[in-house]
Amino acid sequence: MNGQPSRTKREWVPAQPIDISTNSSTRTGWEFVETGCGKALTTVFPGRSFLKIKFALLVPIVCLGVASMVAKADTLTLNSGTVNPAGGSAEIYPYSFQLDTSSGASTVNLMCLNYNREITAGETWSITEEGIPTGNSLVDLDYRADAILYAEILNPPAGVSASEIQYAEWSIFDPSDLAGNSLFDLSSRILAITALNAANNQQLINSGYFSQFTLYIPSNDTSSGPQEFIGTAATPEPSSLLLLGSGLVGMAGMLRRKLVRS
Fold first, then answer.
1. pTM of the model
2. 177-186: long-range contacts at Cβ-Cβ below 8 A with a sequence spacing of 24 or more?
């Protein structure tokens, strides 16, 4: 049961054009550069000029209010993870937990945000429940992308697997840990970059969409501690939770099919 965050520096720099269509048109490419812990990885993704046209269509028409950033201390106990049908040793969503709060105990299914840390069934740790940040820092943006991908995995459409979405999620904080991992494939990369673009959409931020999610941050949030997880807020707006998700995955799936045919 793997995971690990690394708060690294991300830069966008122009790259050579890449052909991502079935016709003769060529769209601008970008290089996604992560540096941290002495590592660096450069990956070519579809350009933002292409994605900006698309993700504007994903904004849900919903007003849920400003996301709450009030934190409270509770505990998580891992029941189990889910074996990845695509292979690999890392378990994927859903991770089943017992959540203990001042109101009592409940079972929750959460999504892992980090790749390289280790936890075992029966392990218990203290956590802080936090809302999704709506600020402008890189970490704020990353957490919003995490929330978007979590919404995706709740109801992935045909052609997009839970494995692809989970690996896209893991790549948000430190894609260098996934370098050379065959499960972090082109679809996962497209999902990650699309989520990062959508997470920067101010209309989406202002809509209150991110108030539907809760981060479960371990008290020992270090490389030797448990992973961070994300789940649904205690009182989500049921009609709006998946509004963004299906559109984002649909776009990524359509782009992948074009790549396969080309």
1. 0.70
2. 177/4, 177/6, 177/115, 177/116, 178/115, 179/41, 181/88, 183/84, 183/86, 183/87, 183/88, 186/256, 186/259
Domain ranges of the chain: 51-69+112-261
pLDDT tens sequence across 165-174: 999 999 999 7
pLDDT digits (tens, 9 = 90+) for 104-114: 999 999 999 99
CA distance 177 to 5: 10
Q: Minimal CA–CA distance to 120: which of 163, 91, 85, 150? A: 91
Q: Kindly tell me the sign of the dihedral angle through the C-alpha atoms of 11, 12, 16, 17.
A: positive
Q: Which of 194, 168, 210 is nearest to 248 (CA)?
A: 194
In whole angstroms, give the CA distance from residue 82 to residue 226. 17
Distance CA 74, CA 71 (A): 10
